[in-house]
Amino acid sequence: MEREPTIFPECLASGFTIIEVVYASAIAALAVGALYSTIMIGYAAVCANQQRLDADALAFDKALEIFNTYDFTGVVLATNLPPASPPAASLLPSNSEIRVMITPASAGTNAPYKWDVEVRVKRNRFWPGSRMVTLTNDLIYRVTRYAIKRN
Q1: Nearest Cα residue to 100 out of 112, 123, 82, 114
Q2: How far apart are CA 89 and CA 100, in angstroms?
Q3: Whole-model pTM?
Q4: Domain count, the chain
Q5: What are phi and psi of 49, to 5 degrees?
Q6: Measured CA angle at 31 (ends 27, 35), to 5 deg
Q7: What pLDDT, on the 0 to 100 scale, is given for residue 14?
Q8: Residue 4 counted as domain residue
Q9: Does 53 reside within a domain?
Q10: Is residue 86 in some structural domain?
Q11: Local mean pLDDT, 10-residue blocks, the chain (151 residues)
């Protein structure tokens, strides 16, 4: 007697159940979610580091500009210069500020023998989830100028 062919051969009948598919999909979704959050944290760190380097360069440039061009002879009390905005080509947000404070040091009532120039950069920083966090005095750069005869 011949055997009748079946509609579903035995090799095709062994597949995944719906429960196995749901579990596999859930695990894949969790893996993708973890990978996405890791990528976003990495991206935020890269953006923050690029802005930090830009802020460092701007603070250094501003400190050297003040050091070389400012008239220190009239500064006998601590002086705050008006805040400056970053240049348009900067990576910093437009509401960032570059602040300069000049503090003289004198021995008694004599004229100052040195001035400390402190440049502070205030910037916003990205965090994962497109949230901005304001960091006050995120970067501080200090130089000292002594009262000596210069060329």
Answers
A1: 82
A2: 21
A3: 0.70
A4: 1
A5: -70, -40
A6: 170
A7: 67
A8: no
A9: yes
A10: yes
A11: 61 75 94 91 84 90 91 86 90 86 82 90 71 69 85 53
Q: Report the 10 Å Cβ neighbour count for 125.
A: 18
Residue at 8 is within a domain: no
Which position has the token pair 């901005």?
132
Q: What is the pLDDT of residue 29?
A: 95
Domain span at 141: 15-146
Q: Are the CB atoms for 149 and 119 separated by under 8 Å?
A: no
In this prediction, residue 75 carries a pLDDT of 85
DSSP one-letter string for the chain:
-PPPPPSS-HHHH----HHHHHHHHHHHHHHHHHHHHHHHHHHHHHHHHHHHHHHHHHHHHHHHHHHHHS-GGG--S-EEEEEEPPPTTSSS-TT-EEEEEEEEE-STTSPPSEEEEEEEEEEEEEETTTEEEEEEEEEEEEEEEE-----
Which residue reads 């990576």 in tokens?
A: 91
